[in-house]
Each structure stands twice: as C-alpha cells, then as structure tokens.
Amino acid sequence: MLEINLNVAKRTPSNKGALNQMRKNGNVPGVFYLKGDEPVPFTVLEKELKPLVYTAETRIVNLKIDENDPKRAILKDIQFDPVTDRIIHIDLLGLTAGQVLSLQVPILLEGTAAGIKEGGVLQQLLHKVDVECLPKNIPQHISVNITNLKVGESIHIKDLQLEDIKILTSEDVTIVSVVQPKVVAAEITEELGDEDKTQPEVIGKGKTNEDEE
Questions:
Q1: DSSP letters spanning 135-176
Q2: Greatest pairwise CA separation for the chain in angstroms
Q3: Is residue 213 part of a domain?
Q4: What would the pLDDT profile of 149-175 be if each residue is shown by its tens digit?
Q5: Do 108 and 167 fall within a single domain?
Q6: 3 state DSSP class of 50
Q7: Cβ proximity of 103 and 74 under 8 Å
Q8: What are phi and psi of 195, to 5 degrees?
Q9: What's the structural domain count of the chain?
C-alpha cells in the first residue's frame, strides 16, 4: 500500500467567512475523524493535497497534526468548488487495527479488449467500487482484466473475485463494456435531439454548500 506524509495545523471551528478567507490564502479546511475521539478540525496547504487527491490509487496518509505523533488515515470525503474545481474541504478517517471500515477503491482496467480490434468502442461506466474491509486489507486499486472482452460483452460487479474484501456496490452494476460504434453514435444523436427540443435556459450562479464549522 502506497503511503503519503501530510503535515497539517489544528484550527478552531470557523464561520463561512473565515473558511473562504482561508481558501483564498491557499489553504484547505478539513476534519480528522477517529472512532472514540472528538473530530479534529485542521487546515492544510492545498498544494500538499495533490498527491493524495489526484491519483488513481488508494493511499494511506501518515497524518501529523502540529507536533503530535503521526496517525494513519485514509481519504474519507472531498469537496470541490463547482466553478473552479479547486479543493474546498477534505475529511480524513483514522485507521484502527481490527476495525472494519467502508471506503471507495479505484478501478484499474488492465489489457486491451478484444472487441476494440473488432471495431468496438470501450465504455467504462464505473470508476470506483464501494467496499468494506480491515485496514490491513485495503487495496491500492481493483484490477479488472478486459483482454477477452468482445463486442456486446460486459463485466459486472458480480464478476469480481476479491479476497478479504466485502463489495458493497450492487452486483448487477456494469463496470465496463464494449459496444458497436453505431450504438455510441445513436446515443449522441439522441442527446443532440433532446437538446434541440429544449428552449434556452438562463442559469444563475448557484450557492455552494460548504461546511460551517
């Protein structure tokens, strides 16, 4: 399992104005949760989060809050600004040996589908799987071999075989499939047709739901 060191500073609960100012200064507010302990609000430089957030792998965080001893954690939740796509809030979940936890694990496709050589188009419909496991069994990712996938075939959650990991996502959910190009073209045409029937709409800038702590 890949690990990353993250140094953060403990902060006091803030109102919306203080949180926005914090973000303008290049910091991201967050909360660390550990079963049996009070949540710990913290702040961290946005640039320090990039190796943790912008990756296709699950990573263990060695979290150091001020001068305290590091605590092991995983990414629990993250919020992005709907306009700028910048990170605006992050939650980390502390790991305790022997405690089962729920998390999302990225899916990694391996190989080249046989159906692509036949002229088919690969469609990945699911990029993360909800699972439940012990901290020691957290996978970096879940590999799905698509080498033998032909046109008209799909791989579903029920086709996965994982040891020491309970899959929470419905077994009927499709992960990836290979379809005929004409199917994709028909979907695009249908979408364009629906747009033509819709009158122009004036959309105002919406409000972002932010945690007020």
A1: GGG--S-EEEE-TTPPTT-EEEGGG---SS-EE-S-TT-EEE
A2: 60
A3: no
A4: 999 999 999 999 999 999 999 999 999
A5: yes
A6: helix
A7: yes
A8: -65, -35
A9: 2
